[in-house]
Amino acid sequence: MDVEIIFEERPELRDPIFVEGLPGVGNVGKLAAEHLLEEIGAKRFAVVYSKYFPPQVLVEDDGTIKLVRNELYYYSREGDAGPDLILLVGDYQGLTPEGQYELSSAIIDLCTDMGVKRIYTLGGFGVGKMVEEPRVLGATTTLELVEEMKENGVIFSRGEPGSGIVGASGLLLGLGHNKGIEAVCLMGETSGYFIDPNAARKLLLILSKLLDLELDLAKLEEKADQIERITAKLKDIEKMEKEGSFEDLNYIG
Amino acid sequence: MDVEIIFEERPELRDPIFVEGLPGVGNVGKLAAEHLLEEIGAKRFAVVYSKYFPPQVLVEDDGTIKLVRNELYYYSREGDAGPDLILLVGDYQGLTPEGQYELSSAIIDLCTDMGVKRIYTLGGFGVGKMVEEPRVLGATTTLELVEEMKENGVIFSRGEPGSGIVGASGLLLGLGHNKGIEAVCLMGETSGYFIDPNAARKLLLILSKLLDLELDLAKLEEKADQIERITAKLKDIEKMEKEGSFEDLNYIG
Amino acid sequence: MDVEIIFEERPELRDPIFVEGLPGVGNVGKLAAEHLLEEIGAKRFAVVYSKYFPPQVLVEDDGTIKLVRNELYYYSREGDAGPDLILLVGDYQGLTPEGQYELSSAIIDLCTDMGVKRIYTLGGFGVGKMVEEPRVLGATTTLELVEEMKENGVIFSRGEPGSGIVGASGLLLGLGHNKGIEAVCLMGETSGYFIDPNAARKLLLILSKLLDLELDLAKLEEKADQIERITAKLKDIEKMEKEGSFEDLNYIG
Amino acid sequence: MDVEIIFEERPELRDPIFVEGLPGVGNVGKLAAEHLLEEIGAKRFAVVYSKYFPPQVLVEDDGTIKLVRNELYYYSREGDAGPDLILLVGDYQGLTPEGQYELSSAIIDLCTDMGVKRIYTLGGFGVGKMVEEPRVLGATTTLELVEEMKENGVIFSRGEPGSGIVGASGLLLGLGHNKGIEAVCLMGETSGYFIDPNAARKLLLILSKLLDLELDLAKLEEKADQIERITAKLKDIEKMEKEGSFEDLNYIG
């Protein structure tokens, strides 16, 4: 069982678009993909097990276990209501470089089998400092896609990300391109210090246009507000530390 | 020889129950399984060798060597005397995540071949502090099993273990479930600081009921007493250190 | 996809000579091979992908991605104008020892298929101190080649390199020799502290003679001058530090 | 090329005895096997290459390279002059646990093919302190062999080595035993701080009796004397340090 994809259903989809959102910087891609999945009510059709995942089961609140895995969902639409979708989500990526390649190769094989027309991978772009207005950066497999994405508000900025794109969000582009599938990586700008629902929200604003979907982003806004309140408090603490407000406390303590 | 199971005998068993007890937190599972094995006089029928174990032989007291391995035992009973058993014990688990998956997959294949009906994996649940009355926590593959285990005194506590179950005790549940075998992990609560015969004893109290076995737990109690005397002494030393009783000694020394 | 070589063209070459220049000490081999490639206008005919490379895509300035890979180029010449060439370049070597073997084995298979007559691998020989006049050291698969290289100015110095040659530059010799292909490793002496275009230049002075090529090395000289200016500044700074010139600054600061 | 054994000759041997001496604690096994090989003038008949060795070539004094490898030698004797021998020597063992298993498995396959009757693996037993009169400790695959070895001066001491035998010297016993080949590990007692020709000499004193060979051990004695002179000097220095003889020097310096 190098990589095993167990199908629960074999949905018939028309030229589906594939969306990946696995854990990564700020968990931006994971947050975005899981929000998308919930909002559109996508249906699970397959699970992915692999020896390249951690050798572990998770224990659910009801006492039952779940073997570490990724999950595949689909969302199909009538006639002209927009393209059908496949979503890849999960709590883990492959543990080793070789595992990353094996897993992404298996997913690209599935994309080929299911006639996937385009891949969007969702990730975070860590900048190491607080970001007020996160940009959505892009990278694609073709120049035509660069233009198309620019028209939809995606930023292409020379040297960002300088180190390339590591993991599934990168490999699905590279391996997909080798199999003739066009692909785009959308990266929400994030500090990388916290999970970042705000970057995920910005990312979904663009993705929903690209996928012709109307999404309610209220839950992500709520989560973003929570995170903001926490970081604001942390900033206050930091400020007080700098101004020496804690010195008195130390005196007493 | 990725994973090689060498059979010494091919026992005919009726719907056997499989019990795993390999090394882990507090060696609770190993202690329990090995005590069970001795008390019922189970018979070895196969050994498991693998390149995923340490590349090492152990030297016995008589000067002969033993290649690192796991061992499989069976215990068969007449008529209604209770279910037949298979036990998996050993000094090592797989060294790498991939090795863990390969070894547990091979064991699940064996379970399928031998018609195993249910799997119990035994482990420790480390809480990082001394435990007076260890609970036995559980995780299972189905909700029905959760209920059955609760009736037998197993505790299911939301968020325990929060990090899931790592290694063979977890994988045998996950991989077994995928092959349609029902499975339960029983975890004896333990500090994790010492090998913990008391947690193993509590675990066997429940397991013996589940397996319809009468077990003499005197040896485990003895071992538990020994450990308790040692930890009591360590506590005394710690107490004296806190109270400064050693300062005088330092004075003299 | 352990190692996948995708051909874009199948050039017909006469007894080609194979030249490898992948990243390594001071990037001497990479600099030399890439300069050679540009100067002769070699043409790409294949790319090498592998799960032994980092699981990563690089983002180009135009926003498109490039899956981590090695590349194969060829250069064919009319009649007596000198031997045909194959060049191997890229940004990465295999991540693991096993990956190194798998990649170099695949390359040697390609060499056998394409009738390669001789292999030159290009590398750096790190000496851990600044080098004014870098030597070009050699190692070969046969004694006859040692003599031939000596006649072309290559230095063979007992105990250099004492630790052997690690990575593709070494393996292509060893694995090539096992398949009956003669091979030479040319190592430009370098501090190993910086990328070293000067060592690459010296290496190409010899290689161009061996390959019967006229190469313009002006660009490498330019790069070497740049590096020299930088290192000269660093030396000044070091000197000032030793002489205490910074103490005054500290006083002020 | 997981493990590749390239034969240069196919010697016909009668029930040969296999002797392994690869690098390890104090290089005792390697020193002993290589001395044995030289003294009897054994002839190389095969080389072992593997992706589990370091990805490296060694450079010989004449400028030619040698791919990292192990080597197999044989020594055949007329009629009753004693058993034929196969020797395994080399500069490296497998880099990873899995590599160790793969390499030793390949060697055991070769032993089976060549009708090997018994295996001796040679190693060091590190005790972490200087040893005046090194013992030769043993471990075997059968109780009969324990007795036979005791009669030849090999020591069997309960709990030594407590941690078992790691690497080829252990695996060849374990894997050999599984294939029905009897095997003995002989371990020369050594501090483990230096390469230890004296432990190797003691080991060969016993092995030469077991193999019915007359060996000149003068060269090993010489090497042992050299090491002894070095360690004696180190002891002097240590003594002086303890006695404070260096304090005066510090005073001056």
Which topology of chain A does CATH recognise?
Rossmann fold
Low-confidence parts of chain A lasting 5 or more residues at pLDDT below 50?
A: 248-253
Count of all domains of chain A: 1
Largest interface, C-beta within 8 A: A-C, 34 and 24 residues
Main beta sheet of chain A, described? 8 strands, mixed
CATH class of chain A: Alpha Beta
Structural class of chain A: alpha/beta
Strand content of chain A: 15-25%
- Please count the helical segments of chain A: 7
Looking across the biggest beta sheet of chain A, what order are the strands in? 1-3-6-7-2-8-11-9
Order of helices and strands of chain A: EEHEEEEEHEEHEHEHHH
CATH architectural category of chain A: 3-Layer(aba) Sandwich
The number of distinct β-strands of chain A equals: 11
Distance between the termini of chain A: 58 Å
Helical amount of chain A: 25-40%
The multimeric state of the shown protein is homotetramer
* Estimated radius of gyration of chain A: 20 Å
Average pLDDT reading of chain A: 93
Overall geometric form of chain A: globular
| The CATH superfamily title of chain A | PAC-like subunit
